[in-house]
TrEMBL record, chains A, B:
Catalytic activity: gamma-L-glutamyl-L-cysteine + glycine + ATP = glutathione + ADP + phosphate + H(+)
PANTHER family with a match to the protein in the record: GLUTATHIONE SYNTHETASE
Similarity annotation: Belongs to the eukaryotic GSH synthase family.
Descriptive protein name: Glutathione synthetase
Cellular component, GO, one term: cytosol
Enzyme Commission number, as recorded: 6.3.2.3
Domain Glutathione synthase substrate-binding: 229-338
Cofactor requirements of the protein: Mg(2+)
A Pfam family: GSH_synth_ATP
């Protein structure tokens, strides 16, 4: 259904107004590092042989109105969500029971679980785990009711866009207030005169989590001691690097912590675990300084979240290598597994054991109830029942999305395509999928997007709010650092079903609270 | 001759070291706005139809050693140079006599002078002038003598690279100290462990000058009063925009002054001077906000410094339009003319009237003598004498450069090409040129450049130090603001005779003082 807030928002743009906003946005993005590397496949042959070019990240020209009550609720619940996923990760028995059920239908989950079992057999040497999370939501609109907050997914690995989303907030705040004293960058509109987007501390929060882990690692476990560092494990050819650099810049400049970047395919070449040292420190050998060695306190994964990144056994070997080391992992294999859609669905089950209250025994029941309110109805597809009915009936399927156990989007099946897709799979594979009721954001939401090739698109959009949190805990469940801070608004054209800002399908946005 | 400081500098780089430094530099540049727009002519057809791409500015991978005594002398003299060029501009009779001598051989100078005369006839309505200057030098090396500072040229219009050079200083400082506590970005070398480049306050200094002029303009001269702004007049299709944005960002964020950018070919469309207002305020009408109008306190020219920018009478009309307005010009036509090479040559004349002492009557004679020491020998070519001899003799020509009355480089004639070039001109045109003895920087200076297409070049280089200054004065010679601050090191491959960083021929650099 419609939300009246969008009735005349955003205001229409004359050609001169659009030219001004586009130029200001393009230039601001390059000046301030709101950037991505262009996709080499979209550039003509030979345009960038040395990979030096950059372009603006895809952004909306206007901030999007977002219900204040939903925004504040998402922030209020984030540290509770942090605790929930830490607690799930600590309860290996509970987690393992769900995961083992997925193993025969999901190779990726199976290989992650095998990685855990292999390290468990040898014995873990690091009790601490670090989570850098992003909980994604939509504002769900229903007739005669204030919008409510509904969770889309909870990301436990490689939660991205913290660096760039803080910049988009600054971009929109600057457009809203410029020039100083006589703001005219936007056409006049009451919403655009109502204030600026709230502060966005994503960079401080996420790098603060990494810094807390770095500190908690303690002194070097090597003899003689080595200088310590944080290691960003990244994808080779990553285009969303400036988002990551926003965090390493803060770690280096503010926290004074050495950070190195290492492509996942070089882990086994450039890191070692001395076999003579039972503490198993992870040693990084910078190829550009052969005489140096650093001990890795914290491995921050911005890679290895997707099955297609594991090209051979060597990638699994690298993953085990890191997992068995003394470095604090962000995340551990178990914590990554806790992000499976199946976990979300089990937590959301309206009947049966009250998992939430078990995991959050020290949290006020009223707060747990609020957290439960953020769950959209979702269904098990392992064996008949309501899930099968809703998925196979073409009419009810229209209100649902089918999700595999993946992060990062790009794999979901929507609405009318669900029944046919399910029937194309053997029934024994259905349990690898979760059926979720679609959330209904305002149907008339509109915005104007500037793509990273400079094309300008106006139309109906759907926005997802992500809220960042970070938590450091040990395997007894003791929590050492638990913070929330910073947010992301990701806005996509309505005809596009999936996210993935770097791929150009959706845009980074910011919020005007109402 | 050689300088022993360069004997083993910069250290050689292994492939892994070079890969690390190049990647770190390329990414740092995009993250921090050390960027330029790529030249569309060097991109394949269709690579960037919407002009969104950016690349790193050309930079050196290493800072260059530079004699501390020369660096400090250049800074010590800058406010005196500021005063000198303000005083020359105030002395219209003295300036006019020299300029009128160039009129019949230099159309550009003639048209500038005509612009001044036209406005003078009507009467100027603005007594204040603003200079944003850059004095360019080399460290001149002679046997058995400490290096001395010799001036290459003094720029009175569109002095560029203040924004980017401050960033290159930060880039090199960061590489020298990273990672924190265990710096290994560079290979070990005593010079690279000796400290970081000195602070570079170019952005603060240059925007501080513009802010001083904005404030000195006083209240709006319109009825009713209009909001005030600074206007950056820029070239259409300018690629070095982020250098300019560094100044406008500071003006907006720190000084809270509205800034607009206006392409020179749109001046007559988007600004007016109400004929009914004898104060002649310059009114800017933002096309993206038709209901708004701003009164321009200060016109900052980053355009109209070169003859090829005046494509028709309309450009001269636009120049007169600004000149006759109440806006403070940075620079005025007269101040631009004061930057002619001929002025530099007259000031440097070893015999005849002591112009320096006349213009700087309130300055200590010892300081004037130091300023005079920065002049390289230079010769009048108007009528025979020593200049002709040195220029036409193939042997002495080798030690000289022939310069027209232009800023921005690209027009000079060097060494063996001088005699033939001069002979190809009628003798009556020779007076439009100045012959200058070449300065001898260290012959063995070396560096590694990262071009803006990502190519890496190592070789012998020549570096020019630029020092920024700003001065605000009125036509009686009273000075209201006179500051120096910030610097530029521009380093070019030795086989390349001319500067022009944005064109890819030379690189932005920073200094390690020794």
């Amino acid at each position: 259904m419609d939300d009246p807030i969008y009735t005349d928002y955003p205001p229409s743009l004359s050609p001169a107004q659009q030219e001004y906003l586009v130029t200001a946005t393009k230039d601001w993005a390059i000046l301030n590092g709101l950037t991505v590397r262009p996709n080499p496949a979209t550039l003509p042959e030979g345009a960038d042989p040395n990979r030096v070019l950059a372009t603006n990240a895809p952004v909306t020209l206007f901030p999007s109105p977002f219900p204040r009550v939903c925004f504040e609720e998402a922030q209020a619940l984030q540290t509770v969500y942090n605790e929930l996923y830490a607690a799930i990760t600590c309860n290996e028995e509970w987690l393992g029971k769900i995961i083992e059920d997925l193993i025969d239908v999901d190779d990726f989950v199976a290989n992650l679980w095998k990685t855990h079992l292999a390290v468990q057999k040898e014995g873990y040497v690091q009790n601490l785990s670090l989570g850098l999370y992003r909980s994604d939501y939509m504002a769900h609109v229903t007739p005669n009711h204030a919008p409510t907050l509904k969770q889309v997914e909870f990301n436990t690995i490689s939660s991205s866009f913290g660096g760039l989303s803080a910049l988009v907030r600054s971009l929109h705040a600057e457009l809203l207030t410029s020039p100083p004293g006589s703001p005219i960058s936007y056409p006049p509109h009451p919403l655009l005169q109502s204030g600026v987007p709230p502060e966005n501390t994503a960079v401080e929060t996420l790098s603060g989590g990494l810094a807390a882990a770095h500190k908690a690692y303690g002194p070097s476990k090597s003899t003689p001691g080595l200088p310590l560092c944080v290691l960003f494990v990244v994808q080779e050819g990553e285009r969303n690097v400036f988002d990551q650099y926003a965090l390493s810049k803060r770690l280096t400049q503010f926290h004074k912590i050495p950070v190195f970047r290492l492509a996942s395919n070089r882990i086994l070449d450039q890191t070692t675990i001395p076999s003579s040292n039972p503490s198993r420190p992870l040693i990084y050998h910078p190829p550009h300084s052969p005489a140096s060695a650093f001990e890795v306190t914290t491995v921050y994964l911005r890679a290895y979240y997707s099955p297609d990144e594991y090209k051979s056994g060597r990638d699994w070997e690298a993953r085990i290598h890191m997992e068995r080391s003394a470095a604090i992992k962000c995340p551990t294999v178990l914590n990554q597994l806790a992000g499976c859609k199946k976990i979300q669905q089990v937590l959301a089950e309206p009947t049966g054991p009250d998992h939430l209250s078990s995991f959050l025994s020290n949290i006020d029941p009223g707060v747990i109830a609020r957290l439960r309110e953020t769950f959209a109805p979702q269904y098990d597809l392992s064996a008949g029942g309501q899930g099968w009915e809703l998925a196979l009936n073409p009419e009810t399927a229209l209100k649902h999305v089918l999700k595999p156990q993946r992060e990062g989007g790009g794999n979901n099946i929507y609405k009318s395509e669900i029944p046919g897709f399910l029937r194309s799979l053997p029934e024994s594979d259905w349990k690898g999928w979760v059926l979720m009721e679609l959330i209904n954001p305002a149907a008339n939401a509109e915005n104007v997007a500037l793509r990273n090739d400079g094309e300008v698109l106006r139309g109906n959009v759907i926005s997802e709010l992500g809220v960042y949190g970070t938590i450091l805990w040990d395997n007894t469940g003791k929590v050492f650092h638990n913070e929330q801070g910073g947010w992301l608004l990701r806005t996509k054209g309505k005809e596009v079903n999936e996210g993935g800002v770097a791929a150009g399908f959706s845009s980074l946005d910011s919020v005007l609270l109402y």
